[in-house]
Amino acid sequence: QLLTIGFIIFSFSILYALFFLNDEIWQQPLHKLILSFASWIIFGLLLVGHIRFGWRGKQAASWTLSAFIMLALAYFGVWAVKLWVIGG
């Protein structure tokens, strides 16, 4: 139930960003957008798998961690590149 609520909130935040923050979204690095959408898709596949195939336990945990890692890379990866590679 928490994953469903999280997926809905994540979907609303992506839609909000696409409609209301259009200029700022396209100024972000492309890999940030790609990783965010990949994370959204993985969360969606997890929910479909849970509903249709009854995924629970280790399988659901690995899908959740995969989606979280993608989302964390989208944020912290951009931060790390700006800090260490670009220098500011």
Structural commentary:
The chain is mainly α. The protein has helices spanning 2-20, 22-27, 30-53, 58-86. Helix 1 runs antiparallel to helix 3 (30-53) and helix 3 (30-53) packs antiparallel against helix 4. The chain is flat, with a radius of gyration of 15 Å.
Secondary-structure map with pairings?
Elements: H1 2-20, H2 22-27, H3 30-53, H4 58-86
What labels describe this entry?
88 residues, mainly alpha, flat
Structural class, by secondary structure, is: mainly alpha
Q: Could you tell me the radius of gyration in angstroms?
A: 15 Å
What is the residue-mean pLDDT, rounded to a whole number?
83
Beta-strand level of the residues, as a percent range?
A: under 5%
Number of strands: 0
The helix fraction, in percent, is over 70%
Number of helices: 4
From N to C, what is the helix and strand string?
HHHH
Q: What is the CA–CA distance across the termini?
A: 40 Å
Overall morphology? flat
Q: Main beta sheet: strand number and arrangement? A: none
- Given as residue ranges, the uncertain stretches (5+ residues, pLDDT < 50) are none
Summarize this structure briefly:
The chain has 88 residues and is mainly α. It is built from 4 helices and no strands.
